[in-house]
Amino acid sequence: MKRIQLEIFLGILTILATSALILYYGITEPERMAANAAAAQARQIEVGAALYEAQCSRCHGVQGQGIPGLCPPLNDRYFFDNRLKDVGWSGALEDYIVATASSGRLASTRPQLYPGQGNPAMPSFSDQYGGPLRPDQIRSIATFIMNWSETATLVEVPSLPAGPTVGVEITKELPTGDVANGEALATSLACTACHILAPTGPAWLAGDGQPGIGARATERLQDPAYTGNATTPEQYLFEAVVDPNVYVVAGYAANIMPGAYGSQLTDQDMADIIAYLLSLK
Question: Which domain holds residue 241?
Answer without folding.
Answer: 179-278
